[in-house]
Amino acid sequence: MFTFELPQIHDFLKAISVLTETFDDSFDLKFSPAIFSIMAAASPSSRCVIALQLSPQIFTTYVCPKLYYKFIFFETFCDTMQECERTGFSSLTFSFQEIDHDAKLASIPGCDKKVDVPLLPSTEEMDVGEFDFGTFVSIESQEFINIIKRLSDFDYVLVTLSISQVKFSYGRKAIILTQEACKLLSV
After folding, report:
1. How many CB atoms lie within 10 A of CB 81?
2. What are 36's strand-pairing partners?
3. How do the domains of the chain map onto residue ranges?
4. 3-state class percentages of the chain: helix first, strand second, coil last, to nearest 5
5. What values do phi and psi take at 8, rounded to 5?
6. pLDDT at 138 > cutoff 70
């Protein structure tokens, strides 16, 4: 069983919108005591995985006593989330019982609006490993989408941070964002 509560559905929708630019509609979900991850293959010809990892600190409530892998059809999930936002879900509770095959979305606090989202057993457990959250960069969503599109054919991309820039590279191909184009934090 896992449960989490988001104080604002709008910010979550904005964050997951970056993932809609990937090739695949089947997205893997990883629920663990330490992190919630949404992952997808960037394109069918590469082993590149695009992931959004959300730490428990961004949630009002986050309960996940053990590791779960599931998958969802992302377009349907996004449509459901957008419909929830349009119909008054300003915040959200997301819960899953092991005996169910659906996640329950409920508007909070104390509202009776509920939506079921199908969660399917994951056939392979996609994972991107642990990230170093001590060093990070803040990039506008559209800029990140553009980077993903330009580099999605590669199996991996080297990301190099310095005090003045972040560089995404593979071989001779490189995309460099200066400090003016993004926020470099904790470098």
Report:
1. 20
2. 31, 54
3. 2-121, 136-185
4. 20, 40, 40
5. -140, 120
6. yes
The more confident residue out of 99 and 9 is 9
The whole-angstrom separation of Cα 164 and Cα 105 is 42
Q: CA 49 to CA 51: how far, in whole Å?
A: 6
| pTM exceeds 0.70, yes or no | no
**Which strands sit side by side in the sheet containing 173-178, from one edge to the other?**
158-161, 165-170, 173-178
Categorize the per-residue pLDDT at 187 as very low, low, confident or very high, splitting at 50, 70 and 90: very low
What are the residue ranges of helices labelled H in 19-162?
Answer: 74-86, 141-151
- Identify whether the C-beta of residue 41 lies closer than 8 Å to the C-beta of residue 23: yes
pLDDT in tens, 44-63: 666 667 788 888 888 888 99
Span 2-121: which CATH code? 3.10.150.10
Q: Is the dihedral of CA 101, 105, 106, 108 positive or negative?
A: positive
Choose among 39, 33, 27: nearest CA to 2: 33
Region 82-109 average pLDDT: 70
Any idea what DSSP says for residue 179?
A: T
Question: What's the whole-number mean pLDDT along residues 7-21?
Answer: 78
